[in-house]
Amino acid sequence: MRDAIILFSHGSLLCGAGENLRAVAQRMRERGDAPIVEIGYLNYSEPPFEAAFARCVEQGATRIIVAPYFLVAGYFVTKSLTPKIAAMQARHPQIEVRVADAMRLHPALAQAVLSCAARAALPESWRRLLSTAALHCRADSQCPLFGSERCPATNGNSKSQNLAIAPPHEFTSSRPTALLVMVHGSPRAESNDDMFAVIDLVRRQAIYAQVQVGFMECNEPSIPAAIEACVAGGAARIIAVPYFLHTGNHVADDLPTCLEAAQAKYPHIEFLMGDYLGHDVLIGDVIRDRVAEVAN
Description:
Rossmann fold; 2 domains
């Protein structure tokens, strides 16, 4: 039997958003999680899932394990993926296909949140992902950067501007510090249950005076309301960690904008933004464990 893993992801309009997932796949190959590790996207990014499946077959895979690169098993995993797998199995009936669970609840996710918080940066680095995105420009008119001064395809620059990235901010532990976990949110409130369980694991570490969750949309409390709760609880410093897997426009621009508004509202509070969850190396461990659950 020759196994292959397909990391199934949604995809993003932002150029360069898939670079981190490529790094995850490369680390999985290097440590031998499977002889074949490919990436397949649902939308926007390349390659599409069908091409990734075909590439696995070309490399001699006899069993393909599809590992959803999603925090929850929502619509894209339970509905969008199923017909794609059925279509590819109809073309390749000799291939056994298994589908792993989404990341959901895993102890490594809690540790990844803390690791991301430890890499907190000052405001001048909050939009570093927009700078590096231009290095991967594909002249896509749907990219959030298209038509802006940062886009090489529309302004003639061959490389991005302001690429200097400040090192993580070193802060003293004497000031009361709150951890704010920024989450997208879901129309299905129950989809957040695993995330809340992960945050409970973070709280049990008792590293921060407070740990609050704020949602971009769909659920409560909102990110501004969660920040207000941090301030009301006596926080002098707030470290905000994006509970996101990808470097899409939310992480690169929307969340920094939200924090900038909070900084203007609470000038006496020190705001720092941690790394986004998907950038932590522990994410690969979560995927490996999910694959092992169905491989065995």
